[in-house]
Amino acid sequence: MRQLVLNVMNDIDYFELLGLPRQFDLNLQDVEANYLRRSRDNHPDYHQNSSSLDQQTSLQIASRLNEAYRILKEPFSRAEYLLTRLGGPPVSEVKEMPQEFLSETLELRMQLEELKDLKDQAGLDQLENDLLQRKKKMLQEVGKLFGESSVGDHLRTIRQKLNALKYVQGLIRDLRDI
Predict the structure, then answer these.
(1) Which residues form the J domain (predicted)?
(2) Rounded CA gap, 58 and 140, in Å?
């Protein structure tokens, strides 16, 4: 526990904290298993009879483990986090989306509004399914870029794809809020 404490205090990488390779493609069962094992070992309830410093440290570790799990279990947040760890540009620096996607954004929004106005549930369901498939494909593209040995050359492209993906996720959210 002492080594884990030192790492937590030194702003450890979430991949390292959960004992996972620093990569986009992860086995979600491994993410969960590692999280549960480390959470169990460091849970504050197991340190109730320890010194107040050990209790505080245990609480900090548990909090960081929870945050690491929350971020790494979800592909979009994992991609955002990994991009940051690799020195990629933040969204505030690169706000644009891939050019091919820009031409479609207005059309997608208009289609959504039209289907809402018509109360066309079948059309809305189909649009949601299409957007979910698109999200899956976009995540695969991002994963492929992260997997390349020259990933450093693609950080700006990854940022642009994540920007577009965020827009698609927003459309899916809007569809579900209807």
Answers:
(1) 13-85
(2) 37
